[in-house]
Membrane protein (Thauera aromatica K172), 259 residues
Amino acid sequence: MLKRIRRWLGLERNPAEVPAAQWDRVERGLPFLDFLTPPERIRLRALALEFLASKEFHGARGLRLDDDILLSIALQACLLVLDIGLEAYAGWVGIVVYPGDFVIPRREFDEAGVVHEYEDEVLGEAWEGGPVLVAWFNEGAHPPGVNVVIHEFAHKLDMENGGVDGLPRLRAGMSRSAWAAAFSEAFDAFRAEVDRGAQTAIDPYAAEDPGEFFAVVTETFFESPHHLRARFPAIYEQLRRFYGLDPAAAARSPPEDRT
Ligand SMILES: [Zn+2]
């Protein structure tokens, strides 16, 4: 299937080579893209095709990767780098797509040097310098409140400057200390909420560590921007500068005002 998209690319690097009806169909499954202006959406489509041409997809466990799956993953991955640029995803090529959640065998040594082997059930994983693994769910089967693709590609951006620590390579003009202050304050507050057993609109998995917090609030930034802006305005502001996008502001305007 990738070959077909490559053939489109070979003919002409033009998003129009993917039929408009197909873009529309795929994008209907991604309603959080609606905040984009028409020119931004055209740019996102072009970036998605460039992304598909530069990466190698593999379907795991017999999953047949059709063009809609490839376009959907590419659009979501590229939303994160629409303003940052595709070079943020340089240095690795593989994307492995699983039919639903999957198991990763883990092996850990404890302090006594005893090896513990177990199986970790996951929805995705991003390897530093290596592939991204994501679970794919058919329409209606997706676990609620989670965006696997946005989550794993946020980890990729975090790793770009080494480690999954919640501190990606910041954009020109951004302050590392302002980022650290906003994130550490919000992370501590959120973890306290989760520890108290409070119901949180943000996935409690964010309380795991600062790296997971960054990936999860990135999902919230795109999926529920108004909530993130109201709950953690400083985080929203940092992510707005980092991604160069303002989903809450744009979503507030009537569609005719968006251009
Ligand atoms: Zn994660």
Remarks:
- Confidence is low (pLDDT under 50) at residues 9-13, 252-259.
- The chain has two domains: 1-146, 165-259.
- Residues 151, 155, 212, 215 surround zinc ion (CB under 6 Å).
